[in-house]
Amino acid sequence: MHSTELLEVAETAARKGAKCLQDWVNEFRVSEKGRADLVTDADFASQKAIVEHITTHYPDHKMLGEEGLTRHEGDSEYRWVIDPLDGTSNYVHGFPYYCVSIGLEYQGDLILGVVYDPNRDELFSALQGHGAKLNGTPISPSRIPSMDQAMLVASLPVGTNGRDVSIDRFLKVLPAAQTLQRTGSAALNLCYVSAGRIEGYWSSNLKPWDMAAGVLICREAGGLVTSIEDASFTIENPSILATNGTNIHSDLQSLLTT
């Protein structure tokens, strides 16, 4: 299957999903999956548009998505991993830091990633072995070598409290970094590492759809992605550390695991 065609399908699907999000901005209803874990009509509308577009081209492909999307039947070795709205809380509050994220695996390996931010009309994309791009222009991480010069971002679990290990980690890194943020969109955070806008990002509570596309984009841009604990990584593991690949990576890993 031609990779360029797959990428075109993914990019169009992402734009269609994002259009649904923007169309629903002033009309959505909100429900809660858990404490502060929001889901909206917009999530479902976006996912429906994405799935319909991909299925039109590849009806036998498997799928995994945030809003109850699982399609395992068939013999296809392709699996799409879809987040129709990454940054739901931001979206609900009108904070313009959210996106559509679409990754694709072949035989279990990530081969394609697309993340589209409709607020900035920024489309991040990557094909395995072909680098990463932003609106068609190649991107790469910064070369900032130390945390005291770095902008870092962390994800904290939904409904976290002061006793959570993630809070301890955040507070450990806070004095070591030039600046440390919590932004609310894992996919965009990974893309921002890829484009040199931030130097590092970590989380211990992600789902596959939160990171599939962004991980490939980061790797193809030249960033380094591991788990927080060691050099291993899989999108089935909620632990991720992504950086520009300088000494920041090992320094962060040391702080986060001690």
UniProtKB/TrEMBL annotation:
A GO term for molecular function: metal ion binding
Q: Which cofactor does it need?
A: Mg(2+)
Quote the Pfam families the UniProt record gives.
Inositol_P
A GO BP entry: inositol metabolic process
The reactions it catalyses are: a myo-inositol phosphate + H2O = myo-inositol + phosphate
The portions of this protein that span the membrane are none
Per the record, the coiled-coil ranges are none
* UniProt keyword annotations, A-Z: Hydrolase, Magnesium, Metal-binding
EC number in record: 3.1.3.25
InterPro entries recorded for this chain? IMPase, Inositol_monoP_metal-BS, Inositol_monophosphatase-like, Inositol_monophosphatase_CS
UniProt-annotated binding residues for Mg(2+): E66, D83, L85, D86, D210
Q: Which family does it belong to?
A: Belongs to the inositol monophosphatase superfamily.
Q: Which PANTHER family did the record assign?
A: INOSITOL MONOPHOSPHATASE (PTHR20854), INOSITOL-1-MONOPHOSPHATASE-RELATED (PTHR20854:SF4)
Write down what this protein is called: Inositol-1-monophosphatase
Q: Provide the taxonomic classification.
A: Bacteria, Pseudomonadati, Planctomycetota, Planctomycetia, Planctomycetales
Q: Its gene?
A: suhB
